[in-house]
Amino acid sequence: MPHTSLKTRERLSEVRYEIRGELARRARELEGQGRHLIKLNIGNPGAFGFRAPDHLQRAIADRIAETDPYTHQQGLPAAREAIAAFHKQRGTPNASPERVFVGNGVSELIDLSLRALLNPGDEVLLPSPDYPLWSAATILNDGRPVYYRCTPENGFLPDPDEIASLVSSRTRAIVLINPNNPTGANYPRALLERIVAIAQKHRLLLMADEIYDHILYDDHVFQPLAPLAGDAPCLSFGGLSKVHRACGWRVGWAVLSGDPLMSGDFHHAMDLLGALRLCANVPGQFAIEAALHGPDTIGALTSPSGRLYETRRALIECCAASEHLELVAPAGALYGFPAVVGEAANGFDDHAFALEMLETEDVLIVPGSSFNVPERNHFRVTLLPEAATLREVFARIDRVLSRRAVAAAQRAAVA
């Protein structure tokens, strides 16, 4: 009997997640050969020596004896009360524990919420670049991503007029990632108000990925979306992974705000899907109240002389010193998204460049096109290593780009 491979879902061929994809697999092979790599592909604080704050660890340890049973599908009551109280302090309308969903990270809740919302062929307006999970979850829930551009010429901020022009009869939601991954853009209030007006006019669900809400630099201030949305249905996502450096705990939440009558069916759909997966990880939920209502532990890292601030400074200075790179300085989040310019950009392919950096310089970065942008001259790095490590990485990047610039000039001379 001939061997045949198991068929897989066809739509998986449309999904990209290079952050943990082919390049990451090649990196593991090289590490197996004894190579020491600098891996800047994932925003994973624990892999760079960060720890979740002590008071969060104690909150779990002190309640560990209570973590064996399943809990309610929307999360521990006390955790949901803490999240609702946090959002009330922000001015989120109709924030209540009944409208809070706790999940195994924001990633699970993104998938659940799109599954609750979309029928086949429905459209979701997504930023380009986006965090690619948003595109993947849209596709795998039979939706269609429609991208609005966030270009470096505009500081990676979207144009509300373009967003409005993309709304069709099949549009169901507008997604915002603020502060943005991968660009670090921070959306001002006036821009958010214009996007809210579009959602209100067309009765669309606003979906605000705000996992980096307290990771901001210099004088930038975060503006949550829900208080501006008023009665418009808005789903705001947050979690412990980034601000509280607890990625492995897999604790995220989504808060449904706006007029409850407008979103009642969607609320019930989210509750049903949550019940089908029983409940989220219980131990980590005991840290939510301590995280949201305890001391600030991220501010010292993002302020001048703080570790994240100094690594961001290294990124900015390295790009400014290079004739091959341009950078829109990240206002928030944990990433830089430089562009390759000049001679080095001639014939440039971001994936081939990332592979060359891995094979010849022992550095793992993410090609910019992985974030659903049409251009192929960007790459993403995380700001989590020490500043000296990032400076060394960019010395290697500049070395490779200089070789490419020389080769491009030689090709041009021959032509």
Structural overview:
Strand 5 (171-177), helix 7 (189-202) and strand 6 form a beta-alpha-beta unit. This protein starts with 21 loop residues before the first helix and ends with a helix. Helices cover 38% and strands 13% of the residues. With 415 residues, the chain is of the alpha/beta class. The chain has two domains: 10-51 and 300-414, Aspartate Aminotransferase, domain 1; 54-293, Aspartate Aminotransferase, domain 2, CATH 3.40.640.10. Helix 1 runs parallel beside helix 13. A seven-stranded mixed sheet has the order 2-8-7-6-5-3-4, sandwiched between helices. Strands 10-14-13 form a three-stranded antiparallel sheet. The chain is globular and about 70 Å long. It has 14 helices and 14 strands. The longest helix is centred in the last third of the chain and has 28 residues, at 387-414.
Helix and strand layout, with pairings?
Blueprint: H1 22-32, E1 38-39, H2 54-61, H3 77-90, E2 100-103, H4 105-117, E3 123-128, H5 132-140, E4 144-149, H6 160-166, E5 171-177, H7 189-202, E6 205-209, H8 226-229, E7 234-239, E8 252-257, H9 264-276, H10 288-293, H11 299-302, H12 307-321, E9 325-326, E10 335-336, E11 339-340, H13 350-361, E12 363-364, E13 366-367, E14 379-382, H14 387-414
Helix pairs in contact: 1-13, 4-5, 4-9, 12-14
Primary descriptors:
alpha/beta, 14 helices, Aspartate Aminotransferase, domain 1, three-stranded antiparallel β-sheet, 14 strands, Aspartate Aminotransferase, domain 2, 415 residues, seven-stranded mixed β-sheet
